[in-house]
């Protein structure tokens, strides 16, 4: 299938109809008018076709996407991409300029002055894209200028160029040559070094503008240096300028006679001769007179011997001055990579004699000063040792390179070129014989079929096709200029190498299906004439028999062997028909009439079957001839001269009658007893439908489709009016009919533009048939879109069970679309196994697929050998009143087109009816239940009711047993069986069982024994109850008056005898009663007679001794209490606990401390060690059951240990790091410290502060402990020591202050003293001794209090020399020595 614009255009959209169009093309095949490489996007290419408009590739030509639908005219010449913006694209063609803003996917015509005029040249300013230049040109399509567009355009007239300075918003027409004449502008070139300088290569010469195209001057032309020497070469077939702007290359030739550059003749016209030669000149921006140097031209001797060609090929047919030269070179193109010292230029031919030496040539020029020298080399073509050592594609013909381009500098250096009908991409720098030098981009190699290489389209097709057909794996197509192409894989890949001989056009191709032992036979004819336009060209006739499946080895055989009877000359053949009653009977429709053979196979074997003309010499241009499929010896044909004719044969003689005289071409088919014809008249702008009866009378004939109807069904944005205001006109082509459907293509012929494919559905139920039309092309850009609806011919082809519409287009090759597929019957849903009961019904069904109508027949037994069931002929089999004998297998046979389909066999099982019985009636207590038993058929489902209520089910076990649990009952219930089911078998039954319910009730009084009773003791309850299962009982105690307003719950009880405890907190009273309550159900309580309850005694407490003098923390406190009786109830319950509580130091019990539990009598309890000292502590007793609290005891005093002592410190003063002796004693009478307590000695700071004390170590009361003064402390006189305890945390008094000396060997143990000797001092150096300080710091001040700078050095063990920085003047000074908090001073006298 053809690759489509799934991503580029509108995505995959649903198609109209069920099938899609199939692209049956090999790729390429038509004239490529232009090729463009996008300078902004590497890999993006455009090509222009003469029949399809425009294609785009985004992958270096590996695939192509049709983008030309919206171009008004489908003959396109170029695509130009805006520099820096790949979305902005211009396309020029036979009808003017189009523009796209989405990369060429959609187009709109530019409504400028060039609209309707041929535009084949354009330039965009690379530095300012607003500046656009468009030339009036048409390449070689002179004939099409007047014949294939509206309004027609003359090739002569005003010589103008169209310019826009605002990106195409507005345009101005500028005349570059004042004298009118042949007006073709081949090239427009902008100087890259100064974009105001623009060049035109035109038929009247080379022109230059220095002001951005507003004014033009003609550059001087060279004169011929070959005969006739001195002829001014006044026509320029194209020019290009080097990247540095220094040199221009141009192709010049002479238009003699009426066209001398300013005349009116066409290129090459007149009495003279055209001499295309290639020239180079250095640009002279100050003058229009240039010096040209020829770099290639035709040799003077006509055989390229003198070397003037410089390596460029010229035809050798110019033996005399009047002989035509066929190598018309044009449009030199300079490689944009060319440098200031070397130029690369390629050139091809606008037309030639197309031999293998005419290819693409590249010039390599070396720059020396103002001149260029070099030579040409063939880079594509065949000459001498040069060969095509690469895949040229299926269209392997001589290379005529008309379009070519270098890739932009943003790409790798390559060339793109179009050779005849193929597109190539390759590296020109490689030698010609390099394998794979070029890649063909218009087609792709698929593989091989026998000895042939096969090809498929890459998405680009541009062939004009005349016919196509297929059978099985074989598809063939006939086309203009390429004769016959064949495919052996259903049209996926193609070759033309297997084609028969003859002319270059394949006129038609038909297949006679296999018949009477003969294999399928392919018929075709090959005629001459370029493009298939020569109706009088000779035709050769061929046939081949197809193997099964068709094979590439199947050979073509000429039907003109021996005496063929076929026309000898000037007769094209356009179609054939075979007689369905006798397939060897064949008629050919030719330019000279109808030719008949009664045995085509004898003609194939050259053993007879000579053709005979029938009906006279009548033109059958479009091959429309058919045999009637229902009436033997009847045929129909369309002739442009005689219209629709009917032929009948009697006794071997044909008689012809005209049925519809103005019918020119059309299609015949037979449907439901009707001979039907869809046809066109000479105008081809209206579709007619006619019916002919069996006697040859026209029954109906009416117009069924025209332009108004077509545009109402489907509109195209490009369709409207031409530039001159003329309305565009649709014509129709490719008519065909099948059953109740019509098919047609449509086109705007003047624009070579297909419009749309349409399908019509015919309603034959009315006297005058009505047709409903629908769009049938598919969705543009989606898979299966039919590109060109401009058809040459079409036909319906039946291929096995499928039927196709084949469309031979004029520009897009061969397409087909499936319109019907006959599907043999198939079973999509098989019958399913059924199980039914005797006497009931059963049904089997099948669902079948296939082409209708379908018929059904049911059988019983094994498929293939079962017994036919008479009358069972529908998709469903129903069996009523089943008996055991009906059990077995059933199947269905479905018949239709092709082989019948047999379903799988389905099993019918006939089951017996099930049974069931109920048993187990019973009497139960209220609130209980029982289980009933059901017996019967194993696994049956039994339906029953309870008291006639809703149906309920029970399933019997595989032993046939089931149970019905009644659940909890409060009333009598009857259980009745209703039905029993097994599978789909059910029968009604009547069987029941009753369940009787006995109510719940007290039976007798409630007796209370054990009264009177003490609170907290038990009493015994006794009562009786009927049906107590599931009933709960609760005993409650009233208040002393017998009221149950706020009862006390005693316990859950049960019928019989139960002991319950009276709460210990119950007050004494004589009117207490007990009642028993029920739940599930709730009944009236059972109440006892009144009885008496006695209360417990009161607790008293005392301490022992009664008033202790003091108690220390942590000591034992004896607690004594007793219980005072109250009648017989003096004992607390066994679960009661007495707790001893301690008040706070003030006697408050707001947050009491629990000392422990105790029993009546005396209990020693330990007081906590963390209690505060106080004199108001008390204790009390609290009982738990009942909760009672005693009175508090008398207050008592609580004391703790004391540390109000002053420690003694010996051995002071002391040196740092030395030991002192620390001792202390505890106060007399103090409570003892608890076990685990430790005493620690702490040292204050030098000032006596304990803000950050140092711990010296542990000490013991009553003994001296030696402790070390840390060596890190500073010397000082205010140190003190104190003692702290850990449990409790107490602190002693501090010791007396003592002194700590540094003691570093300088009499530290002595009292601090400063001695100056001698004093007075005469030298100015003070000698002194210091005792009691370790590292004294010295300072010296004068009588003014100013501190002087001094230096100090040791003089002896405790001596120092203090030297002032400056010599002292005589007078009194103060010397200071300090360390820590010790400061010593001494007055010093300094003498003369």
Helix share of residues? Answer: under 10%
What's the β-strand tally? 115
Mean pLDDT, to the nearest integer, reads: 88
Low-confidence stretches: 1-18, 257-273, 318-325, 1305-1309
- Strand content range: over 45%
Note the total helix count.
Answer: 3
The largest β sheet comes out as: 6 strands, mixed
**What does the radius of gyration come to?**
64 Å
Overall body shape: flat
Helix/strand-derived category reads mainly beta
End-to-end separation in angstroms reads 129 Å
Task: Write a brief structural summary.
This protein is mostly beta strands.
What does this structure look like?
The protein is mainly β. The protein has three helices and 115 strands. The strands form 32 sheets. Strands 60, 63, 64, 66, 67 and 68 form a six-stranded mixed beta sheet that branches. Strands 51, 52, 53, 54 and 55 form a five-stranded antiparallel beta sheet that branches. The N terminus is likely disordered. It starts with 20 loop residues before the first strand and ends with a strand. The longest helix is centred in the middle third of the chain and has 7 residues. It is flat, with a radius of gyration of 64 Å. Strand 63 and strand 64 form a beta hairpin.
């Amino acid at each position: 299938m053809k690759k489509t614009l799934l991503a580029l255009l509108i995505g995959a959209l649903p198609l109209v109809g069920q099938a899609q169009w199939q692209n049956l093309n090999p790729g390429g095949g038509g004239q490529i008018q232009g090729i463009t490489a996008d300078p902004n996007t590497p890999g993006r290419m455009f090509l222009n076709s003469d029949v399809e408009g425009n294609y785009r590739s985004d992958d270096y030509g590996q695939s192509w996407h049709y983008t030309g639908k919206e171009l008004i005219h489908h003959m396109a010449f170029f695509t130009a991409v805006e520099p820096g913006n790949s979305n902005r694209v211009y396309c020029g063609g036979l009808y003017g300029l189009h523009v796209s803003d989405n990369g060429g996917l959609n187009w709109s015509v530019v409504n400028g002055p060039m609209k309707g005029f041929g535009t084949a040249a354009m330039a965009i300013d690379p530095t300012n894209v607003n500046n656009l230049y468009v030339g009036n040109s048409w390449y070689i399509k002179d004939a099409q200028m007047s014949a294939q567009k509206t309004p027609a355009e003359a090739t002569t007239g005003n010589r103008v160029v169209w310019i826009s300075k605002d990106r195409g918003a507005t345009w101005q027409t500028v005349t570059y040559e004042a004298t009118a004449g042949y007006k073709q502008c081949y090239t427009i070139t902008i100087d890259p070094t100064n974009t105001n300088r623009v060049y035109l290569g035109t038929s009247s010469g080379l022109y230059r503008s220095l002001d951005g195209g507003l004014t033009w001057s003609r550059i001087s032309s060279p004169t011929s240096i070959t005969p006739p020497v001195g002829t001014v070469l006044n026509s320029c077939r194209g020019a290009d300028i080097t990247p540095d702007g220094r040199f221009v290359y141009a192709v010049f030739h002479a238009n003699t006679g009426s066209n001398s550059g300013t005349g009116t003749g066409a290129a090459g016209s007149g009495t003279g001769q055209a001499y295309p030669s290639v020239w180079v000149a250095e640009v002279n921006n100050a003058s229009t007179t240039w010096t040209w140097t020829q770099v290639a031209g035709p040799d003077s001797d006509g055989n390229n011997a003198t070397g003037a060609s410089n390596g460029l090929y010229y035809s050798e047919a110019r033996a005399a001055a009047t002989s035509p030269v066929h190598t018309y070179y044009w449009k030199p193109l300079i490689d944009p990579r060319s440098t200031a010292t070397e130029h690369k230029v390629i050139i091809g031919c606008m037309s030639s004699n197309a031999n293998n030496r005419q290819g693409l040539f590249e010039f390599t020029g070396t720059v020396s000063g103002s001149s260029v020298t070099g030579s040409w080399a063939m880079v594509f073509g065949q000459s001498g040792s040069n060969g095509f050592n690469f895949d040229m594609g299926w269209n392997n013909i001589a290379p005529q390179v008309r379009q070519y381009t270098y890739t932009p500098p943003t790409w790798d250096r390559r060339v793109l070129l179009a050779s005849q009908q193929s597109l190539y991409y390759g590296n020109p720098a490689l030698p010609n014989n390099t394998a794979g030098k070029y890649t063909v981009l218009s087609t792709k190699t698929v593989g091989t079929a026998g000895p042939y290489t096969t090809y498929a389209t890459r998405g680009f097709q541009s062939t004009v096709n005349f016919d196509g057909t297929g059978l099985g794996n074989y598809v063939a197509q006939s086309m203009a200029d390429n004769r016959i192409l064949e495919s052996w894989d259903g049209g996926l890949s193609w070759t033309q190498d297997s084609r028969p001989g003859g002319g270059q056009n394949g006129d038609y191709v038909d297949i006679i299906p296999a018949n009477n032992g003969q294999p399928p036979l392919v018929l075709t004819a090959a005629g001459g004439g370029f493009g298939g336009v020569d109706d009088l060209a000779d035709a050769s006739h061929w046939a081949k028999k197809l193997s099964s499946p068709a094979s590439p080895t199947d050979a073509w055989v000429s039907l003109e062997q021996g005496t063929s009877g076929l026309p000898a000359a000037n007769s094209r053949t356009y179609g054939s028909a075979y007689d369905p009653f006798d397939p060897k009977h064949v008629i050919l429709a030719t330019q000279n009439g109808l030719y008949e053979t009664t045995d085509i196979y004898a003609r194939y074997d050259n053993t007879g079957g000579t053709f005979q003309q029938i009906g006279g010499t009548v033109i059958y241009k479009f091959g429309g001839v058919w045999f009637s499929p229902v009436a033997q010896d009847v045929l129909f044909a369309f002739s442009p001269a005689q219209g629709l004719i009917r032929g009948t044969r009697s006794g071997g003689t044909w008689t012809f009658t005209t049925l519809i005289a103005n019918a020119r071409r059309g299609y015949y088919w037979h449907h439901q007893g009707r001979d039907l014809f869809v046809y066109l008249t000479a105008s081809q702008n209206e579709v007619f439908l006619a019916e002919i009866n069996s006697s040859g009378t026209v029954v109906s004939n009416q117009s069924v489709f025209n332009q108004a109807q077509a545009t109402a069904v489907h509109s195209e944005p490009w369709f409207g009016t031409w530039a001159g205001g003329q309305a565009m006109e649709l014509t129709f082509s490719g008519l065909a009919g099948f059953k109740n459907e019509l098919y047609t293509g449509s086109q705007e012929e003047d624009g070579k533009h297909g419009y749309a494919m349409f399908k019509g559905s015919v309603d034959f139920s009315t006297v005058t048939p009505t047709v409903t039309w629908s769009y049938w092309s598919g969705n543009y850009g989606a898979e299966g879109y039919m590109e060109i609806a401009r058809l040459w011919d079409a036909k319906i082809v039946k291929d096995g069970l499928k039927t196709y519409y084949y469309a031979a287009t004029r520009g897009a090759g061969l397409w087909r679309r499936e319109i019907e597929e006959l599907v043999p019957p198939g079973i999509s849903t098989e019958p399913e196994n059924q199980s039914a009961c005797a006497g009931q019904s059963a049904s089997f069904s099948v669902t079948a697929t296939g082409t209708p109508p379908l018929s059904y027949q049911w059988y019983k037994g094994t498929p293939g050998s079962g017994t036919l069931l008479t009358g069972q002929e529908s998709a469903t089999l129903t069996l009523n009143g089943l008996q055991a004998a009906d059990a077995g297998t059933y199947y269905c046979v479905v018949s239709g087109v092709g082989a019948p389909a047999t379903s799988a066999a389905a099993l019918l099982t006939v089951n017996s009816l099930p049974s069931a019985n109920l048993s187990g009636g019973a009497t139960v207590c209220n609130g209980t239940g029982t289980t009933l038993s059901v017996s019967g058929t194993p696994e049956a489902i039994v339906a029953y009711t309870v008291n006639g209520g809703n149906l309920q089910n029970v399933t019997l076990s595989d032993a046939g047993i089931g149970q019905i649990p009644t659940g909890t009952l409060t009333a009598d219930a009857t259980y009745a069986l209703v039905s029993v089911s097994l599978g789909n078998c059910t029968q009604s039954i009547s069987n029941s069982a009753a369940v009787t319910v006995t109510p719940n009730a007290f039976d007798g009084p409630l007796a209370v024994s054990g009264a009177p009773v003490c609170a907290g003791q038990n009493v015994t309850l006794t009562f009786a109850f009927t049906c107590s299962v599931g009933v709960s009982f609760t005993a409650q105690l009233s208040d002393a008056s017998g009221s149950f307003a706020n009862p006390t719950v005693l316990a859950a009880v049960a019928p019989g005898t139960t002991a319950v405890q009276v709460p210990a907190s119950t007050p004494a009273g004589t009117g207490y009663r007990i009642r028993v309550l029920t739940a599930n159900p709730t009944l009236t309580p059972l109440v006892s007679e009144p009885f008496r309850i006695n209360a417990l005694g009161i607790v008293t407490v005392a301490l022992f001794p009664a008033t202790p003098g003091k108690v220390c923390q942590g000591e034992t406190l004896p607690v004594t209490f007793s219980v005072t009786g109250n009648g017989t109830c003096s004992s607390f319950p066994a679960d009661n606990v007495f707790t001893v509580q301690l008040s706070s130091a003030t006697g408050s019990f707001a947050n009491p401390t629990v000392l422990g539990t105790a029993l009546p009598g005396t209990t020693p309890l330990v007081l906590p060690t963390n209690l505060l000292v106080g004199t108001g502590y008390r204790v009390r007793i609290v009982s738990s059951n009942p909760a009672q609290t005693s009175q508090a005891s008398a207050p008592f005093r609580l004391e703790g240990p004391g540390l109000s002592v002053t420690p003694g410190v010996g051995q002071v003063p002391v040196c740092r790091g030395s030991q002192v002796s620390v001792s202390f004693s505890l106060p007399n009478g103090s409570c003892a410290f608890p076990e685990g307590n430790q005493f620690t000695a702490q040292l204050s700071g030098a000032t006596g502060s304990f803000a950050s004390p140092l711990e010296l170590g542990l000490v013991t009361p009553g003994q001296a402990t030696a402790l070390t003064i840390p060596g890190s402390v500073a010397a000082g006189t205010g140190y003190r020591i104190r003692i702290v305890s850990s449990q409790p945390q107490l602190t002693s008094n501090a010791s007396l202050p003592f002194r700590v000396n540094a003691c570093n060997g300088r009499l530290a143990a002595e009292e601090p003293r400063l001695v100056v000797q001698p004093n007075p001092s005469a030298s100015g150096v003070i000698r002194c001794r210091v005792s009691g300080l370790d590292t004294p710091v010295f300072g010296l001040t004068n009588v003014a209090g100013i501190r002087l700078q001094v230096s100090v050095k040791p003089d002896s063990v405790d001596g120092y020399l203090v030297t002032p920085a400056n010599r002292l003047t005589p007078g009194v000074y103060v010397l200071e020595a300090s360390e820590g908090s010790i400061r010593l001073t001494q007055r010093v006298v300094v003498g003369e």
